[in-house]
Amino acid sequence: RNGHTLFGVLNYTKTPGGSRRLRSNILEPLVDVETINTRLDCVQELLQDEELFFGLQAVISKFLDTEQLLSVLVQIPKQDTVKTAESKITNLIYLKHTLELVEPLKAALRSCNTPLLKAYYSSLEDTRFRIILEKITTVINDDTRYTKGCLSMRTQKCYAVKPNINEFLDIARRTYTEIVDDIAGMITQLAEKYNLPMKTSFSSARGFFIQMNVDCSTLPNGQLPSEFTKITKMKNTYSFTSPDLIKMNERCQESLREIYHMTYLIVCKLLNEIYEHIHCLYKLSDIVSMLDMLLSFAHACTLSDYVRPEFTDTLAIKQGWHPILEKIAMEKPVSNNTFLTEGNNFVIVTGPNMSGKSTYLKQIALCQIMAQIGSYVPAEYCSFRIAEQIFTRIGMDDDIETNASTFMKEMKEVTYIVQNANDKSLIIIDELGRGTSAEEGIGICYAACEYLLNLKAFTLFATHFLELCHIDALYPNVENCHFEVQHVRSSAGNKEKIAYTYTLSKGYTEEKNYGLKAAEVSSLPSSVILDAKEITKHIAKQILHRQKSTPEMMKQRAVYHLAMRLVQTARNSRLDPDSLRIYLKGLKKKYEASCPAPGQNDEQ
């Protein structure tokens, strides 16, 4: 609601239908690459052709809620009341307004080049639009149109039907006009009688009433004359009525009921004639909502340096950033790289509290969704593998409604992921196992990691359990990354602070006891902090040294990564022969550097 969502970042739609379409696409992204690229082609053309962009935006912004209009038009009311009659008349005016926008929309699309926009232009050439509009204009006045303001719209409804179609309707409308003129004349007489700046006002709730701006000190005895009733005051603005005006409002309403009833009969007959052609309007509704959403994507791109995504078998994001964080902070956040392939499909992310792990994980999921709905992505370059599902396990909340503790809720969510994920899934897990003891948490994390590793899904796993980082010795498709922090001494020089860089680097974090450092920033008493440090040192002495990879393991891992890079290059490379030769030489040097030197012992 406050705009700090992906919907809020991308929503620059002008119509209710476009807004609904954007929301449904975010909830259910596309999985067909051809359809996504078709949308991206449209967004690219809109960004490159300003005339097309602003021309379409100007026309689309004039459309009303076409989907709702169609649903109301095809409904048959259970009983004919004044309200249903008024609604039908209003919707016919809306329909006329919508059909009159078809030609301007066609004109805006005439110069387009992308297949989807051309297809929309062809759809708008359907002769049924012209047939329906011609049938409407035989009955409805040419100058009848949708307007803002309840009184103006009421006038449009009263005089919607052309004169000389129904004699009794013409008489009723003349009566209505006379009553309205009498009301205006009566208020003018009252203004002259009391020498006050009265004017005629109207609201749907009160009908016609009197309004004036005057300082109460200028009124006789500081009050309005006694014949006025229902007085309300807002600062120096008075609103009121009189018994005579109330009676005239009743006469006006009675006249309106007669007009609406007779107009309704004519409108119903007209609608029956156009029902056989109404199917083209569903296509129009689809075109308007899709164009509105694509324009919204293009608008969002103009406000930030987004880039068009590619679709391969690799998830590669160069200098990507969090789109929602950018909107909240009103500046570009720190950007980071992401790389996952079939041979490097599991990334373990470590780092101190508040270093940016959770934000980074959410950023990847948001970028994946943006790419799969046909939007540009906040990055310098990005390539995505189509994700058939996106699973997330984030947060530390319990669930009172289902009597589930924090840990039980974690387990339910992980169970759902394990049962439903496949090799085409994107899985985001943030600090699993925090709701139970450290030993059990590590065990559960290990088991979950091994299952997901064998599944071959793309997985990003943030954790504080550094023991998990050693799983890369057993599985070469695991990559360790961490968020760097810097240690800064205070001006007095006696206290050390953590400065967060929010920068992702390879390897697991070397930070020790960063939870204690975060606690020092809080309001915990210093005695508690000192005790915690002593206890931590005591426990640390009892923990075994971290396992280190043997030279053989290091060589196997280097060979595995080299092979996967060569496969990726063969599949996706678009380099010319000379550039490819340089790239392969670089791979060779990297492989030689990562292999242990001959004679290196296990302790090294």
Automatic annotation (TrEMBL):
<dbReference type="Pfam" id="PF05192">
    <property type="entry name" value="MutS_III"/>
</dbReference>
<dbReference type="GO" id="GO:0005634">
    <property type="term" value="C:nucleus"/>
</dbReference>
<dbReference type="InterPro" id="IPR027417">
    <property type="entry name" value="P-loop_NTPase"/>
</dbReference>
<dbReference type="InterPro" id="IPR007861">
    <property type="entry name" value="DNA_mismatch_repair_MutS_clamp"/>
</dbReference>
<dbReference type="Pfam" id="PF05190">
    <property type="entry name" value="MutS_IV"/>
</dbReference>
<keyword id="KW-0238">DNA-binding</keyword>
<dbReference type="InterPro" id="IPR045076">
    <property type="entry name" value="MutS"/>
</dbReference>
<dbReference type="InterPro" id="IPR036187">
    <property type="entry name" value="DNA_mismatch_repair_MutS_sf"/>
</dbReference>
<dbReference type="GO" id="GO:0006298">
    <property type="term" value="P:mismatch repair"/>
</dbReference>
<feature type="domain" description="DNA mismatch repair proteins mutS family">
    <location>
        <begin position="425"/>
        <end position="441"/>
    </location>
</feature>
<keyword id="KW-0469">Meiosis</keyword>
<protein>
    <submittedName>
        <fullName>MutS protein 4</fullName>
    </submittedName>
</protein>
<keyword id="KW-0547">Nucleotide-binding</keyword>
<dbReference type="InterPro" id="IPR000432">
    <property type="entry name" value="DNA_mismatch_repair_MutS_C"/>
</dbReference>
<dbReference type="Pfam" id="PF00488">
    <property type="entry name" value="MutS_V"/>
</dbReference>
<dbReference type="GO" id="GO:0005524">
    <property type="term" value="F:ATP binding"/>
</dbReference>
<keyword id="KW-0067">ATP-binding</keyword>
<dbReference type="GO" id="GO:0140664">
    <property type="term" value="F:ATP-dependent DNA damage sensor activity"/>
</dbReference>
<dbReference type="InterPro" id="IPR007696">
    <property type="entry name" value="DNA_mismatch_repair_MutS_core"/>
</dbReference>
<dbReference type="InterPro" id="IPR011184">
    <property type="entry name" value="DNA_mismatch_repair_Msh2"/>
</dbReference>
<comment type="similarity">
    <text>Belongs to the DNA mismatch repair MutS family.</text>
</comment>
<dbReference type="GO" id="GO:0030983">
    <property type="term" value="F:mismatched DNA binding"/>
</dbReference>
<dbReference type="GO" id="GO:0007131">
    <property type="term" value="P:reciprocal meiotic recombination"/>
</dbReference>
